[in-house]
Amino acid sequence: MKISRNRANGKRYEGELVKTLRSLKIYARLGRSNEEVDVIIPSANIGIELKSTNRNDSWTFGCTNPRKTKDQYRRLLLSPMIIYYAIRFKGQGIAGLRLYSIPPEMCSLKKNEGLTLEEFVILVQKNTQEVSHAI
To answer: Which of 6, 9, 27, 46 is the most buried (most CB within 10 A)?
Structure first.
């Protein structure tokens, strides 16, 4: 069944992202079933919603399940966390991942406009240092 395979792949990709972030010295954990996001970086108050696409250049909100995506998007806008969408583009694995701040409205997220994982890590490290200095 396609849905269960998609869910299994999604869980695998989420675990891969957590493992990669931890290898880069950023503590991350999987979101729990009662949390809206897939991955959480507690020290920076960041939540990440991971999506995959078979496209090479962009991802569009709701292209597979418009109502579910729209409802989730609305809930994420209300989150007290800083929300990012991580889009895994076709055939590029973790290296092809691009991260985007949650946009003010649903739109198409273009690959060349997102942060690379390396750029995102630098941003998180800077944010974490600022938070720890403020305490």
So the answer is: 46
- What are the pLDDT digits (tens) for 8-38? 666 788 999 999 999 999 999 999 988 889 9
pLDDT band (50, 70, 90) for residue 92? confident
State the Cα–Cα distance between residues 49 and 10, nearest whole angstrom: 11
Residue percentage of the chain with pLDDT more than 90: 53
**C-beta separation of 13 from 90 below 8 A:** no
- 3-state secondary structure string across the chain: CHHHHHHHHHHHHHHHHHHHHHHCCCCCEECCCCCCCCEEEHHHCEEEEEEECCCCCEEECCCCCHHHHHHHHHHHHCCCCEEEEEEECCCCHHHHEEEEECCCCCCEEEHHHCECHHHHHHHHHHHHHHHHHHC
